[in-house]
Specification:
There is one protein chain. This protein is an alpha/beta fold. It folds into three domains: 6-160, Sandwich (Jelly Rolls), CATH 2.60.120.260; 164-239, Sandwich (Immunoglobulin-like), CATH 2.60.40; 244-543, Alpha-Beta Barrel (TIM Barrel), CATH 3.20.20. It has seven helices and 34 strands. An eight-stranded parallel beta sheet has the order 29-28-27-26-25-34-31-30, with helices on one face. The chain starts with 5 loop residues before the first strand and ends with a helix.
Length: 545
């Protein structure tokens, strides 16, 4: 939803790190928002501990155009627990480091334009804590990465008419009927919102015809733009005509279907980390670079792994043409690297997910919070055209009741597919039999439950590029010492394992991974994004199905 009346609050804020919940009277220095204090780009480069409180403070004057309107304060994401005060009034509390939250703060302004914002953050990361944290770890190493804290996505304010405004949109492309359903949740005036599409007006909610549409795909990423008007408020948005499903092909093999046709998912694992910004990209162009680079190499899918990006990233995937499998970041109260979650990669064993304590979900509060957050994630990203699948669990990390969670996801979003348990601990649910295969050869086997089969992780071939490494450690699943050796191994992998499996029924594969991340040197580009390990045309030729 795009409005004209907004102001960015990114930039310098005061900050302090304390041991108490009492607001500091003096601040330690200046931090550049939206970069976490652990990052170079924040200008701080300090670690926030699990018993610390991170404080932000900023005072400023709103533009004159905000006068007389309602004002909404937005936070893209704050890791993990946040409390917000405006002019001394407590306006918001939020738990969860990956999802946006907002507060309507007009009453806190006391009729003026002067604003003083104070934010208190606590981030226990993986220390005696079950909140979602993805792959962050206080003691980083191997497949676990530097923990980051605090504000890591854009902060901004919006000015909306006092008489009423549009709170959210719900957009459903109905591919087979050549129309789109649009509705708007509004607050205020007792009138109907109106959508304006191709110079025609439609009172919402409405099914709006889209005759002779161009289907959205990575090859033709066509977007359709429209406006919604509610009294004096106007927002701009877009949609795409696309359909995701799993169906049998002409030979009776379950495949992923895009727009009613079999479509092979040729993807990359994408962690979304940067050496100078950790979770936060250094600039908008960095998002574009990663997505476009993956597409130039011939990939049509990114699996966004253990992280939820700002909406800006998904917009670039929409317009550039890149399918997305969206992970729910993992949580749970125990270290994921237990025997239960490492044995499958070696022995191929699986176990159930009803023993809550074994997966760090012994607390009912932890399970309830996860279900609430996955619902919030789907609600936040529901309108994004490029997202083709939801992935609630990865390799058993915090996994519980996966089949029930799958049913819950499908009940709130029937327009996408679900990979209910990526890797192992399969509960025979969802649309895919989802496998992670490292350290051994893959041979295709059909799923006895009639689902499509995907390799949702594989490969991970490492090549260290001196001068472009985070540390002197080299983590990967197979070491190569030169570009020539990497090319040979990658070609052999696809020729001998992947392509024969595709002919037998493999519906998709996701190679590990797009970029190096800290100790992991198994990316196709270095962590600093300065060195491609193989020319894009070479990778494209190897992976072409």
């Amino acid at each position: 939803m795009v409005r004209e009346g907004w102001v960015s609050l990114n930039g310098p804020w005061d900050y302090s790190i304390t041991k108490t919940t009492k607001q500091p009277t003096q601040y330690d220095g200046t931090i550049t928002v939206p970069f976490s204090p652990e990052t170079q780009l924040s200008g701080v480069s300090l670690k926030v501990g699990p018993n610390d409180y991170l404080w932000y403070h900023r005072a400023f004057r709103l533009p004159e155009t905000f006068e007389g309107n309602k004002v909404i304060l937005h936070f893209g994401a704050v890791d993990q627990e946040a409390d917000v005060w405006v002019n001394g009034f407590h306006v918001a509390s939020h738990i969860g480091g990956y999802l946006p939250f907002e507060a309507e703060i007009s009453e806190s302004l006391l009729g003026g334009l002067e604003v003083e914002i104070t934010v208190r953050v606590r981030d226990a990361s993986d220390y005696k804590n079950f909140h979602t944290r993805g792959k962050q770890k206080l003691k980083r190493g191997g497949i676990w990465y530097t923990a980051q804290s605090g504000i890591w996505q854009t902060v901004w304010m919006e000015s909306v008419p006092a008489s009423g405004y549009i709170k959210s949109l719900k957009i459903d492309p109905i591919y087979d009927n050549s129309c789109v359903f649009i509705n708007a949740d509004c607050e205020g005036e007792d009138i109907k919102p109106v959508a304006i599409f191709e110079e025609n007006s439609y009172e919402l909610p409405a099914r709006i015809p889209v005759p002779d549409f161009i289907p959205w795909s990575p090859e033709t990423p066509k977007l359709y733009h429209f406006d919604v008007v509610f009294g004096d408020d106007t927002v701009s948005s877009y949609f795409a005509m696309r359909k995701y499903s799993v169906e049998e092909d002409e030979n009776g093999v379950p495949r992923f279907f895009l727009n009613n046709r079999p479509y092979f998912l040729n993807g990359l694992l994408d962690q979304g980390y940067w050496p100078d910004g950790l979770y936060t990209a250094p600039c908008d162009e960095a998002y574009v670079y990663d997505i476009a680079m993956a597409k130039t190499m011939g990939f049509n899918l990114l699996r966004k792994h253990m992280k939820i990006e700002p909406l800006r990233w998904y917009y670039h995937c929409d317009r550039i043409g890149m399918l997305v499998w969206q992970d729910m970041p993992s949580g749970g109260s125990r270290d994921f690297a237990s025997l239960r979650n490492t044995a499958p990669v070696i022995f191929g064993s699986n176990s159930g997910d009803g023993d809550y304590s074994a997966s760090g979900r012994g607390s009912a509060e932890s399970r309830e919070e996860f279900i609430k957050e996955i619902g919030s994630m789907i609600n936040c990203l529901y309108n994004v055209p490029c997202i083709a699948a939801w992935v609630p669990f990865n390799e058993g990390w915090g996994q519980f009741d996966a089949a029930k969670i799958c049913d819950f996801i499908m009940s709130i979003d029937s327009s996408r597919t679900v990979d209910h348990a990526s890797g192992w601990h399969d509960r025979h649910a969802g649309d895919f039999k989802s496998l992670h295969v490292y350290l051994k050869k893959y041979r295709f086997k059909p799923d006895q439950y009639g689902r499509a089969v995907v390799l949702s992780e594989f490969g991970g071939y490492a090549q260290a590029i001196q001068g472009h490494m985070y540390s002197n450690k080299e983590f990967g699943y197979k070491r190569t010492d030169s570009a020539a050796e990497l090319e040979f191994e990658l070609k052999e992998l696809y020729e001998e394992q992947i392509k024969p499996a595709v002919k037998e029924g493999l519906a998709g594969c996701i190679y590990t991974q797009l970029s190096d991340v800290e100790d992991e040197v198994n990316g196709l580009v270095t962590y600093d994004r300065r060195k491609m390990k193989l020319a894009p045309e070479v990778v494209k030729r190897i992976i072409e199905i």
